[in-house]
Amino acid sequence: MMKRVALFALLAGAGFGCGKGSESIPEPMEVAGTATLANGQPVRNVRVTFHPLDAKLPPASGRVGEDGTFKLKTITDKPGVCPGKYAVAFENLGDDDTALKKSNAMLRQIPVKYQEQPSALEVEVKPDAAVLTIKVPAK
Questions:
Q1: How far apart are CA 1 and CA 120, in angstroms?
Q2: pLDDT for 95-123, tens place per residue?
Q3: What is the C-alpha separation between 93 and 101, in angstroms, rounded?
Q4: Domains along the chain?
Q5: Confidence band (pLDDT; 50, 70, 90) for 30?
Q6: Helices (DSSP H) in 20-138: which residue ranges?
Q7: Which pLDDT tens digit goes with each residue over 37-78?
Q8: How far is CA 7 from CA 2, 15, 50, in A?
């Protein structure tokens, strides 16, 4: 029995600590995106946040413009997002009163389940992705 435990520990340990002793996190890659509602209208004037499903990856977020387009930055302010799977949430900008009013108006059109964490809206950012399209399902 002791040999089996030792062998299992040896085999399990072989999968960890390769290279520099820890699994490396991929570099963020610049990705442009578009967010639309189910009816095809652009999501606008909100912050989109990508919350990683893999805890090793950093979150990323960006401001969604009037035309529904956005660019992401990681929490460390690096441009882009790391490849991986994310829960996507839409949040209030709250920069000033005007932005807050526009943001709140848009958020009333987005189901609450896509504004909270964990969000039910998930996307996968593939290593070769240059453009993301997010369609927010109807309420």
A1: 45
A2: 778 888 989 999 999 999 999 888 999 99
A3: 9
A4: 25-136 (2.60.40.1120)
A5: very high
A6: 97-107
A7: 999 999 999 999 999 999 999 999 999 999 999 999 998 888
A8: 8, 13, 40
